[in-house]
Amino acid sequence: MNEVYLETDRLRLREFTADDVELLVELESDPEVMRFLTGQPTPRHQIADVTLPAILKRYAEHPGLGTFAAHQKADGAFVGWFGLQPTDVPDTVDVGYRLNRTAWGKGYATEGTRALIAKAFTDLGLQRVVADTMAVNHRSRAVMRRAGLRFVKLYHEHFDDPLPGSEFGEVLYAIDRATWEAGCHG
Fold this sequence. Notes:
- By secondary structure, the chain is an alpha+beta fold.
- It has one domain (4-181): Aminopeptidase (3-Layer(aba) Sandwich), CATH 3.40.630.
- Helix content is 29%, strand content 28%.
- The protein contains five helices and eight strands; from the N terminus they run E-E-H-H-E-E-E-H-E-H-E-E-H.
- Strands 1-2-3-4-5-6-8-7 form an eight-stranded mixed beta sheet, with helices on both faces.
- Helix 1 (21-28) packs across helix 2 (44-61).
- The mean pLDDT is 89.
């Protein structure tokens, strides 16, 4: 495994490599994993030709940020990814994750998200972390709350091909550095 980006009690995060196409294909071929994202599996050619090259490019363009493969420390099994993505707002990053269904319900999403928030405020010196999801994605909203993010707003976007539930809007959660430092982070 290449260089470790971040470790938690149970997870090890690393940069993706060009050899990781199959890990992403496996993850994004599960319709339940993609339910609140695209509503359907991502074709292999899309991952190989667009998704993975974009992930690899982001590492060079935004050092310290990007999408990171997550593996269980115990056995090395791939559980999905976590990411800190740049936003249009200075000193603000977007935190996110996508986990294999076999990793659901084990606390990995909260564990990884908390660790990324801590990294954003400490190692990276950023000021705000945000996250968003569909309003109807209650499991992800619960992870955001457990990770210390707080509800900011409900908003509506126009989608040419809306997913079921998109009529209820999107939600934005966030935490700023001062709040996190004050100990309100879980």
